[in-house]
């Protein structure tokens, strides 16, 4: 008999099982699962993420090689490739989506006091989207441009801890700006976006909700200047203006004053134009807020490099969404454990060590406390603090 708990069991102990059961109850089919439960399915998909498994056969072969330990790792059903394939194909992915969003709420509460790098008491969110390319012959339900296929991951990233707050999975043909229609805006919070979200009728919702946006502007937007504030050329602020839009459609979509800031980025020798509905922050603070938007780009880059969302183990829309949601749930789970156990190492280093020790009987806290001793991350400021 095994003594102590396996590392994998200690990891999944941080998952709120009652909340998962409630999510499953909302979307379970008419007939109960017999030998392979939703929980078994979740554990299999998380195992795949933690150990970089790339196929159903890969997942089941590796798990069955530890058959004597599976019960102690939390598995109760029999592990078979066809069973896992059917589960991913038929069981509603919304159960895993809802559970992932519950984990996100837990993580955001843990990271609520993290530093933003900008002196603000309000919440700051970065908005962006990333496309995951697929093979059109296998994923004909997800057409994209140029005879390709893909799905788009729309994300609202909470910059306190870099935790995704809202995630929406759509076809690659859905526009980025349409994501703004699905947001519940928080009064007083800041939302930072690139110019792909420059849709003035949608941006008017932010002002109506007493929320603030910072967005990069396109070069040629018809406007008139109604006030001009002193600028600080030495700091890179070329102009700080209050404007009214005068375009045929833009003035109807956004009829109230906007703030327009021109900032010269000396490091890259380029001039950026920002639009915002906040008239109180200093121009340099607005520029710093926009610079923080890069963290959402790093978030997409990180999950594509270190989680399995580029090679899919199923070809249906439901199977793809199930894999994406369980990948994000794995990311958030490791982030929760990092905070709860006060681990100093990066998430990348944690994942590397966990992948080799899932079926070992080592106290999780001791295992992860030692990671920072041999984590050779360079601590570059271009990396996410959490990652």
Automatic annotation (TrEMBL):
<dbReference type="InterPro" id="IPR002559">
    <property type="entry name" value="Transposase_11"/>
</dbReference>
<protein>
    <submittedName>
        <fullName>IS4 family transposase</fullName>
    </submittedName>
</protein>
<dbReference type="InterPro" id="IPR025399">
    <property type="entry name" value="DUF4372"/>
</dbReference>
<feature type="domain" description="Transposase IS4-like">
    <location>
        <begin position="122"/>
        <end position="333"/>
    </location>
</feature>
<keyword id="KW-0233">DNA recombination</keyword>
<dbReference type="Pfam" id="PF01609">
    <property type="entry name" value="DDE_Tnp_1"/>
</dbReference>
<dbReference type="InterPro" id="IPR012337">
    <property type="entry name" value="RNaseH-like_sf"/>
</dbReference>
<dbReference type="GO" id="GO:0003677">
    <property type="term" value="F:DNA binding"/>
</dbReference>
<dbReference type="InterPro" id="IPR047952">
    <property type="entry name" value="Transpos_IS4"/>
</dbReference>
<dbReference type="Pfam" id="PF14294">
    <property type="entry name" value="DUF4372"/>
</dbReference>
<dbReference type="GO" id="GO:0004803">
    <property type="term" value="F:transposase activity"/>
</dbReference>
<dbReference type="GO" id="GO:0006313">
    <property type="term" value="P:DNA transposition"/>
</dbReference>
<keyword id="KW-0238">DNA-binding</keyword>
<comment type="similarity">
    <text>Belongs to the transposase 11 family.</text>
</comment>
<keyword id="KW-0815">Transposition</keyword>
<feature type="domain" description="DUF4372">
    <location>
        <begin position="4"/>
        <end position="76"/>
    </location>
</feature>
């Amino acid at each position: 008999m095994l003594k102590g708990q396996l590392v994998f069991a200690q990891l999944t102990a941080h998952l709120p099982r009652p909340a998962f059961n409630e999510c499953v109850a909302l979307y379970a089919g008419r007939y109960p699962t017999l030998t392979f439960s939703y929980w078994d399915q979740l554990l299999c998909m998380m195992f795949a993420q933690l150990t970089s498994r790339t196929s159903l056969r890969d997942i089941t072969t590796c798990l069955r090689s530890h058959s004597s330990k599976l019960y102690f790792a939390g598995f109760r059903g029999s592990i078979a490739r066809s069973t896992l394939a059917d589960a991913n194909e038929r069981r509603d992915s919304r159960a895993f989506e809802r559970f992932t969003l519950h984990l996100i709420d837990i993580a955001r509460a843990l990271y609520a006091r993290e530093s933003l790098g900008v002196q603000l008491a309000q919440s700051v969110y970065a908005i962006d989207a990333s496309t995951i390319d697929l093979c059109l012959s296998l994923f004909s339900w997800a057409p994209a441009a140029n005879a390709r296929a893909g799905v788009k991951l729309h994300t609202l990233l909470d910059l306190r801890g870099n935790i995704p707050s809202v995630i929406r999975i759509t076809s690659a043909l859905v526009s980025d700006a349409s994501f703004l229609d699905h947001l519940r805006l928080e009064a007083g919070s800041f939302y930072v976006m690139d110019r792909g979200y420059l849709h003035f009728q949608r941006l008017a919702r932010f002002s109506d909700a007493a929320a603030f946006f910072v967005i990069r502007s396109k070069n040629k937007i018809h406007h008139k200047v109604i006030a001009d504030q002193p600028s600080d050329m030495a700091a890179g602020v070329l102009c700080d203006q209050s404007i009214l839009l005068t375009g045929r459609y833009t003035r109807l979509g956004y009829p109230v004053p906007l703030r327009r800031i021109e900032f010269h980025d000396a490091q890259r020798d380029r001039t950026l134009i920002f639009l915002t509905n906040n008239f109180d922050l200093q121009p340099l603070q607005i520029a710093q807020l926009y610079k923080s938007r890069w963290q959402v780009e790093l978030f997409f880059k990180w999950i594509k490099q270190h989680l399995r969302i580029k090679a899919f183990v199923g070809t249906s829309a439901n199977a793809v969404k199930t894999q994406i949601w369980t990948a994000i749930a794995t990311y958030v789970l490791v982030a929760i454990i990092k905070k709860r156990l006060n681990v100093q190492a990066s998430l990348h280093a944690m994942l590397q060590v966990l992948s080799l020790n899932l079926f070992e009987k080592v106290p999780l806290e001791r295992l992860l406390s030692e990671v920072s001793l041999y984590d050779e991350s360079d601590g570059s400021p271009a990396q996410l603090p959490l990652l």
